[in-house]
Design goal:
With 439 residues, this protein is α+β, with helices and mostly antiparallel strands. It folds into two domains: 154 residues, Ribonuclease H-like superfamily/Ribonuclease H (Nucleotidyltransferase, domain 5, 2-Layer Sandwich), CATH 3.30.420.10; 277 residues, Alpha-Beta Plaits (2-Layer Sandwich), CATH 3.30.70. 41% of the residues lie in helices and 16% in strands. The chain is built from 13 helices and 17 strands. The radius of gyration is 24 Å and the shape is globular.
Length: 439
């Protein structure tokens, strides 16, 4: 089961060819981000019952098989344990993600906490500072852990239907978020968790297997999705380029524009809050009324629409949509998202209400629209130095060298704004010192 002869490599690839196969990479450290990790071993299991674990870098092996790693990474039409991770170690994109398949099949995030053996726990606690701790853990223990994973995952791989929704998700989300993660974020010595810093960079970690598909983004106790604007946390983030800057693009009234698109209501290119504020207060808005307009709109969107506002056509249509969605939920105990046609069902959500369902739906729409845009921007940045470094729901941040700014930024802005989703742009050398600019 533990491959220890180079002559067996070719035979193993022959066994894999045209067979349904599960592949589980084992990294040298489970607690370091994959972007700064290496492959310790690769576990293989095929539909014929062929099972091998191939050491790449491990203390039990006089000679590892790391020179063959690229052959494994180029495998196609296989099930991989974590596609986002797989892509960051150089793996082929034409694979199926086990964790996403689990999420689609069982309507819950994949829980991997019960797979490590007692030996794994012992070594991880004993050698917390050793970067290559998994190279010390006996290969037989790695094999036992992979067999536990296979016990749960393999029946699903054999029986699950890879429907169009899963295939679309599998083709976009792992690729988009692996590229953002790989870019890393440059930090100064002021960063408050130095244990996360490697060569001046920290790495985000997106989890999109949530009820709505909206990703969380936290790594080893640091929440990249909710960095405090007031306590100096953001002051540690800077550009990686000597002549560069961070550029943040925020969608204006994103949810309002998204739901307007869904219900077929045409919003102006100008401020949504000014537009709706004229219905609340009249034509000439003061600064205080403009700010109050935002609060009213948010309250109506997320807390339910008061009867006095149903005379406004936009809110009439929103209210009608909310209760049509609610009727569908009560009838089928399930709704589907508009782009990926992904199900959100009662198995995954408890104590549902009409407004809660609407908010879940909005978050799902927000994420699906955003990921399409992120994919287009990332394609445009191929062969460019500019990096997409952070995505947080209604904003995207880039690290841009000045040599590319004049050409790249207008192109990014055009992609993000397509479909009548205007963005506001800020620039700065430090994340907490951003100034509004026009592009």
């Amino acid at each position: 089961m533990i491959l220890d002869d180079a002559d067996e490599i070719d035979t193993l690839f022959q066994c894999i060819e045209n067979k349904r196969t599960l592949v589980i990479p084992i990294l040298t450290n489970n607690f370091l981000h994959v972007s700064i990790n290496r492959v310790c071993a690769i576990y293989i299991y095929t539909e014929d019952g062929v099972e091998r674990i191939v050491p790449m870098r491990h203390t039990e092996q006089l000679t590892g098989f790391s020179e063959h790693l690229s052959r494994f990474l180029q495998l196609r039409d296989i099930f991989v344990y974590d596609k986002k991770q797989w892509l960051q170690i150089g793996g082929n994109d034409a694979v199926w993600d086990v964790k996403t398949l689990w999420w689609y099949t069982y309507a819950e995030a994949y829980d991997e906490s019960h797979y490590p053996t007692a030996a794994h726990t012992f070594y991880w606690r004993r050698h917390t500072a050793f970067q290559y701790v998994n190279t010390l853990i006996p290969m037989q223990q790695h094999l036992a852990m992979c067999q536990k994973i296979r016990h749960y995952a393999w029946p699903m791989c054999v029986n699950a239907k890879l429907d169009e929704s899963y295939l679309k998700f599998n083709a976009t989300y792992p690729a988009v978020f692996s590229r953002i993660e790989q870019s890393g974020l440059r930090v100064t010595e002021e960063f408050r968790m130095p244990e996360l810093v490697t060569n001046g960079f920290v790495y985000s970690q997106y989890n999109y297997h949530t009820v709505t598909g909206r990703p969380s983004n936290a790594a080893r106790g640091f929440n990249f999705a909710a960095m405090n604007k007031e306590d100096g946390t953001r002051s540690a983030f800077c550009s990686r380029f000597d002549d560069g800057a961070l550029v943040e693009m925020d969608f204006d009234s994103y949810h309002v524009r998204l739901i307007a698109r869904i219900i077929g209501y045409e919003m102006p290119d100008t401020s949504v809050h000014d537009y709706l504020g004229r219905y609340y207060f009249g034509d000439a808005l003061t600064d205080e009324q403009r700010e109050e307009s935002k609060q009213i709109t948010f309250r109506l969107m997320y807390g339910g629409i008061d009867s006095e506002f149903l005379s406004i056509e936009f809110f009439q249509r929103v209210n009608k949509f909310v209760y049509e969605l609610w009727a569908q939920w009560k009838s089928k105990k399930c709704i589907r998202t508009p782009i990926l046609n992904r199900p959100i069902c009662s198995d995954a959500v408890k104590n549902m209400t009409a407004n809660k369902l609407f908010n879940y739906y909005l978050q799902a729409v927000e994420t699906e629209v955003s990921v399409q845009k992120l994919q287009q921007v990332l394609d445009a940045l191929t062969q460019k130095q500019t990096r997409m470094v952070l995505y947080t729901y209604d904003s995207v941040m880039f690290d841009v060298p000045m040599t590319e700014a004049q050409t790249v930024l207008p192109e990014i802005k055009h992609i993000l704004e397509s479909g009548n989703f205007p963005v506001k742009c800020k620039v700065g050398n430090i994340y907490d010192k951003m100034k509004t600019i026009s592009i």
